[in-house]
C-alpha cells in the first residue's frame, strides 16, 4: 500500500529558495534514450545551501557543481535534493528519458513519430530536474540534436544556429530572450508541411508566421493562419498589445490532451483545433479553431509576459484569456451568438461542477493533482468574473486597469489579487467586496420579487442573494444585475443613471436590496440578469405572458433567446410532472409565437436557429434531485416532436427556401445552421419528400450540411440512419478527425444496440484508446449526449465508462480523470443508479497504482 496522495494548499505558499540565471538545455533525441543536459546558475535567496529540484520518472546520469562531480545529493521519488551548494552554484545535470514509452502526453513524448512536449502544468519535471514552478523565470538556450529525417527541430524564441554533425545527425540552437517559467518551454522535432506567412505589427515590425502540420494536410491550414493574423491585429486594436518576437510558430499534433498550449513563440495544438476545410470541418469547427488560435495568441500577454505566481492562480491567466477570446469572437462575429454559447457552457457544465464533489472556487485553495483544475470553473466562471469587472468598470475603465496591470507586472509572476488591485487602483473603485468571487464556491442564487403601485406609477424590484450550501463565503457578494424594463407596447423604458449604471446595471451588494422605478404608466415587464450579467441562478416567478412579451420585444437577441428557453423549460418541467406524454400538445400561445418566428426568415438565421433549440438534458437535470432520467429524456423529445409536428408546413417551407452560397461568411453559415435546424425537426415527422431531402443533403460536399443531415437522421432514428452511417464510414476512414464525428454520432444512437455497438467500435481500424480525441469522440459523446443509454438501469452505461477509465489509468491518467466527471455526481440520481455508479467508483478506487488524478476525484466523490 503506497501512501495517500497529499494535497497542497494555497496558504502554504513560500517563495522559491533560489533564482535561476539562464537555463541551457541540450537534447540528444532518441525514442528510448533521449539524453538531456541542463546547465544553470542557482543563487540562494537567503541562507539556503540545499535545493530540491523537481523531477519524476527520470534516470539521473550525472551531477556537476561548479565544474566538479557532485555526489552530495539525495534522490527522492519526485525530485533531486542537492546539498552543499554555495550561495551561487553552477549546476550541470545529465539525465535520460524515454519519449517512446511516454503515453501520458505530458513531458517529452512521441506523437505519430514526431517529438513534442507538453509542460503545463507540471510536465517539465518529466524532462529534467528543475525548479518546476511558475514563479521561477529565466531565459532559455536550447540545442536540439536529432536525425536528418526530422528536418524541423523547434523550440521557443529565435533560431540562432544550426548545422550538421559527423554522425549524420543535425542540430539547431534556439534562444528565447524573454524570461519564462518552465511550463512555457516547448520542443518539437519531426517532418512537417509548413504554411508560412507574415504579419506586420502596428509599429512596422515583420513577424514570420509558420504553421506546421502533418504531411499532406497543407490545404487544411489556411484558416488557422488567417485566424492568427486576425488575432494579432485585434489585440493591437482592442487591447493595445503588440507581439514581441520576430517569429510565431504553431505545430499541430495528433496526440494531445487538451485543445492547445501557449508555449512562448511555439504553440502546440491538437490537430483537431487547427485543420479545417469545408469538406472535412463544420462551420462550428471553423469557429472553434478561430477562437482557440486567438486564445493561445492572447496568452502571449495574459499568461506569458505576466504569468501566475503559483498554480492556485491559474484563473489569472485562463479566466482573463477566455474573456479575451470571447471578446475577439464577439467583435469579429455575432456578439449575441457568442454570449449564448458562453452562457450555455456555464449553465450546463459549470453549474454541474458547482453541484458536484469537485466544486471549487475559481481560485482553488487545495489541490492534489493540478491537471484536475483545468476546469470550466477556473476557465469559464473565471471569465465571467472578469466580465463582471468589465461590466462594473465599463470598457474604458477596464482598459485603464489592463494598462496599469502591464505597467506594474510585465515580466512578473503574480496573483489574482494583483490583477484586481490594478483594476481597482486604475479606476479608484473599491473592489474588496468583489474579490469574494475568488473564494466563493457553488452557484450563488439571486431571487427577485416585484410589485407595482398603480397609484404612484412605481415599480419596486426586491433582490435577495443567497449562497450555495457548499460555499464557505457567507458575506454578500458584489453582483452586477443588468435589467431592462419593457412597457405594454414593448418599448424599452429609460432607467435613470442614478438607479442603474449605463441605464441598466444595478449593483447588488447587500443580502437584500430594493430598487424603485418611478413615473411609469403601467406595470412593466422586467428582464433580469440580462446577458447573464453574473454567473448566478435566477429565481423569479415569470408568467408565461411576460416571457412571451420579452421574447417579442426585448432589445437584445440574448434576452429574447433566454425568455424562450424559459418557456421551453416550463413545458418540459410540466411534462415531467404529469407524464402525459402521448396527449401532450404545445400550448396555443407558444405555437403561435414560434410560428410567427419561423415565418420570418429575414433576420439573423443563426439566432433564429438558437430560438428553436430546446434546452438539453444536462441543462435541465440541474433542476432535479433525484434526476428523473427517463421522464426528462422523454419530455425533451416530446416537446421537440411537438415543435416538429405543429410547425411541419413552416419547416418544409423554410427548408425549401434556404439556399447558401457555399461560402464561409456569416450569412452563409447562418443559412446552413437554419437548414440543419429544419432538418432536425423534419426528420422526426418524415415523409417521402423529407426523406429525399435528408438523403440529398447527406451527400453534400460541405461537412456542415452533410453532418447536419446525418445527425438529424440519427436523432430521429430515421430509417436512413444505418445506410448514411455506413456510407460515411466508407468515405472517411482515411481522415481520423472526420471519423471522430462519426464515432460521436454512433455514441449518440438511441436504439437498444447502442452499447454493444460502442464496444464493437473499440476494434474499428480508426479507433485508438491512447488517442484522447478518439476517446472523447466515442465515450465523451456517449456520456454527454446519450443520457438514455449512459444512465441505463442495468448499469451497463456506467460499466462501459469505468472499464475504459481503468484501462486509461496507467496509459493516460490525465485523460482518464477527464472522462470520469459524469460518474462523480452520482448523488444527484435515484437510489438504484446511485448504487450502480458508486459501485463503479469503488471498483476504480481499488485499482492497483491508482493515479493521483483519479484518486483525487474518486476520493472526493466517495467521501
Ligand atoms: N494552457 C492551455 C490553454 O488553456 C491549457 C493546456 C493545454 C493544458 N495543454 C494542457 C493544461 C495540458 C494542462 C495540461 O490554453
Ligand atoms: Zn488558456
TrEMBL record:
What are the residue boundaries of the Peptidase M1 alanyl aminopeptidase Ig-like fold domain, all occurrences included? Answer: 442-541
The GO biological-process annotations, alphabetized, read as: proteolysis
Q: Which domain of life is it from?
A: Bacteria
CDD domains from the entry? M1_APN (cd09600)
Q: Where is the Peptidase M1 membrane alanine aminopeptidase domain?
A: 224-434
Q: Does the keyword Zinc apply?
A: yes
Q: Tell me, what is one Gene Ontology molecular-function annotation carried by this entry?
A: zinc ion binding
Domain Aminopeptidase N-like N-terminal per the UniProt entry, residue ranges: 23-184
Q: Does the keyword Hydrolase apply?
A: yes
Q: Which Pfam families match?
A: DUF3458, DUF3458_C, Peptidase_M1, Peptidase_M1_N
Q: Can you give the residue ranges of the Peptidase M1 alanyl aminopeptidase C-terminal domain?
A: 545-863
Q: EC number(s) for this protein?
A: 3.4.11.2
**UniProt similarity note:** Belongs to the peptidase M1 family.
> What name goes with this protein?
Aminopeptidase N
**Which organism encodes this protein?**
Pseudoalteromonas rubra
Amino acid at each position: 500500500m503506497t501512501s495517500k496522495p497529499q494535497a497542497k494548499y494555497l496558504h502554504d505558499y513560500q517563495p522559491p529558495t533560489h533564482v535561476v540565471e539562464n537555463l541551457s538545455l541540450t537534447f540528444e533525441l532518441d525514442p528510448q534514450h533521449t539524453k538531456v543536459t541542463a546547465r544553470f546558475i542557482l543563487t540562494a535567496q537567503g541562507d539556503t545551501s540545499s535545493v530540491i529540484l523537481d523531477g519524476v520518472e527520470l534516470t539521473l546520469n550525472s551531477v556537476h557543481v561548479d565544474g566538479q562531480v557532485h555526489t552530495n545529493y539525495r534522490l527522492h521519488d519526485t525530485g533531486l535534493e542537492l546539498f552543499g551548494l554555495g550561495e551561487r552554484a553552477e549546476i550541470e545535470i545529465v539525465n535520460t528519458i524515454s519519449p517512446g514509452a511516454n503515453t501520458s502526453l505530458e513531458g517529452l513524448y512521441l506523437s505519430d513519430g514526431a517529438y513534442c512536449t507538453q509542460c503545463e502544468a507540471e510536465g517539465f519535471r518529466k524532462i529534467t530536474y528543475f525548479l518546476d514552478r511558475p514563479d521561477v523565470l529565466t531565459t532559455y538556450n536550447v540545442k536540439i540534436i536529432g536525425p536528418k529525417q526530422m528536418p524541423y527541430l523547434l523550440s521557443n524564441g529565435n533560431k540562432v544556429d544550426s548545422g550538421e554533425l559527423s554522425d549524420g545527425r543535425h542540430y539547431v540552437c534556439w534562444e528565447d530572450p524573454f524570461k519564462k517559467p518552465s511550463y512555457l518551454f516547448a520542443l518539437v522535432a519531426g517532418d512537417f508541411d509548413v504554411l508560412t506567412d507574415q504579419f506586420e505589427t502596428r509599429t512596422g515590425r515583420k513577424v514570420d508566421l509558420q504553421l506546421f502540420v502533418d504531411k499532406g494536410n497543407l490545404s487544411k491550414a489556411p484558416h488557422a493562419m488567417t485566424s492568427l493574423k486576425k488575432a494579432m491585429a485585434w489585440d493591437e486594436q482592442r487591447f493595445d498589445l503588440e507581439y514581441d518576437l520576430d517569429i510565431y510558430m504553431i505545430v499541430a499534433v495528433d496526440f494531445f490532451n487538451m485543445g492547445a498550449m501557449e508555449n512562448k513563440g511555439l504553440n502546440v495544438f491538437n490537430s483537431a483545433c487547427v485543420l479545417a476545410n469545408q469538406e472535412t470541418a463544420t462551420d462550428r469547427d471553423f469557429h472553434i479553431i478561430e477562437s482557440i488560435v486567438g486564445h493561445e495568441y492572447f496568452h502571449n500577454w495574459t499568461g506569458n509576459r505576466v504569468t501566475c505566481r503559483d498554480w492556485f492562480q491559474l484563473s489569472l491567466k485562463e479566466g482573463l484569456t477566455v474573456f479575451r477570446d470571447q471578446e475577439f469572437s464577439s467583435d469579429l462575429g455575432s456578439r449575441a451568438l457568442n454570449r449564448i454559447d458562453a452562457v450555455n457552457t456555464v449553465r450546463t457544465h459549470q453549474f454541474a461542477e458547482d453541484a458536484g464533489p469537485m466544486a471549487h472556487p475559481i481560485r482553488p485553495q487545495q489541490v492534489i493533482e493540478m491537471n484536475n483544475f483545468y476546469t470550466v470553473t477556473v476557465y469559464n466562471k473565471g471569465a465571467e468574473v472578469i466580465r463582471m469587472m468589465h461590466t462594473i468598470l465599463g470598457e474604458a475603465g477596464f482598459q485603464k486597469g489592463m494598462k496599469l496591470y502591464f505597467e506594474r507586472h510585465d515580466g512578473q509572476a503574480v496573483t489574482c489579487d494583483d490583477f484586481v488591485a490594478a483594476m481597482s487602483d486604475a479606476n479608484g473603485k473599491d473592489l474588496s467586496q468583489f474579490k469574494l468571487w475568488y473564494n466563493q464556491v457553488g452557484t450563488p442564487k439571486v431571487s427577485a420579487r416585484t410589485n407595482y403601485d398603480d397609484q404612484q406609477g412605481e415599480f419596486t424590484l426586491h433582490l435577495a442573494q443567497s449562497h450555495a450550501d457548499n460555499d464557505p463565503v457567507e458575506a454578500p457578494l458584489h453582483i452586477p444585475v443588468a435589467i431592462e424594463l419593457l412597457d405594454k407596447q414593448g418599448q424599452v423604458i429609460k432607467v435613470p443613471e442614478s438607479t442603474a449604471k449605463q441605464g441598466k446595471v444595478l449593483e447588488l451588494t447587500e443580502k437584500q436590496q430594493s430598487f424603485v422605478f418611478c413615473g411609469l404608466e403601467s406595470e412593466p415587464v422586467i428582464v433580469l440578469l440580462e446577458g447573464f450579467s453574473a454567473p448566478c441562478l435566477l429565481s423569479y416567478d415569470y408568467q408565461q405572458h411576460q416571457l412571451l412579451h420579452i421574447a417579442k420585444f426585448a432589445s437584445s437577441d440574448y434576452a429574447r433567446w433566454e425568455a424562450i428557453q424559459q418557456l421551453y423549460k416550463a413545458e418540459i418541467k410540466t411534462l415531467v410532472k404529469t407524464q402525459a406524454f402521448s396527449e401532450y400538445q404545445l400550448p396555443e400561445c407558444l405555437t403561435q409565437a414560434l410560428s410567427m418566428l419561423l415565418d420570418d426568415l429575414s433576420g439573423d438565421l443563426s439566432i433564429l436557429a438558437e430560438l428553436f433549440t430546446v434546452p438539453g438534458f444536462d441543462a435541465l437535470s440541474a433542476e432535479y434531485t433525484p434526476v428523473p432520467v427517463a421522464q426528462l429524456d422523454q419530455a425533451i423529445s416530446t416537446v421537440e416532436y411537438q415543435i416538429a409536428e405543429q410547425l411541419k408546413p413552416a419547416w418544409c417551407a423554410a427548408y425549401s427556401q434556404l439556399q447558401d452560397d457555399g461560402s464561409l461568411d456569416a450569412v452563409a453559415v447562418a443559412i446552413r445552421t437554419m437548414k440543419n435546424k429544419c432538418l432536425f425537426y423534419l426528420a422526426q415527422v418524415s415523409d417521402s419528400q423529407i426523406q429525399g431531402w435528408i438523403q440529398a443533403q447527406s451527400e453534400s460536399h460541405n461537412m456542415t450540411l452533410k453532418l447536419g443531415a446525418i445527425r438529424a437522421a440519427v436523432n430521429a432514428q430515421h430509417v436512413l440512419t444505418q445506410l448514411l452511417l455506413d456510407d460515411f464510414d466508407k468515405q472517411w476512414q482515411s481522415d481520423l478527425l472526420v471519423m471522430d464525428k462519426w464515432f460521436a454520432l454512433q455514441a449518440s444512437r438511441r436504439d437498444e444496440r447502442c452499447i454493444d455497438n460502442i464496444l464493437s467500435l473499440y476494434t474499428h481500424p480508426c479507433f485508438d484508446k491512447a488517442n484522447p480525441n478518439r476517446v472523447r469522440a466515442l465515450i465523451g459523446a456517449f456520456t454527454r449526449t446519450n443520457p438514455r443509454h449512459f444512465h441505463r438501469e442495468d448499469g451497463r452505461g456506467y460499466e462501459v465508462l469505468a472499464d475504459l477509465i481503468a484501462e486509461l489509468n496507467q496509459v493516460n491518467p490525465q485523460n482518464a480523470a477527464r472522462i470520469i466527471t459524469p460518474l462523480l455526481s452520482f448523488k444527484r440520481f435515484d437510489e438504484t443508479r446511485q448504487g450502480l455508479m458508486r459501485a463503479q467508483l469503488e471498483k476504480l478506487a481499488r485499482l492497483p497504482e491508482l493515479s493521483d488524478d483519479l484518486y483525487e476525484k474518486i476520493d472526493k466523490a466517495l467521501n
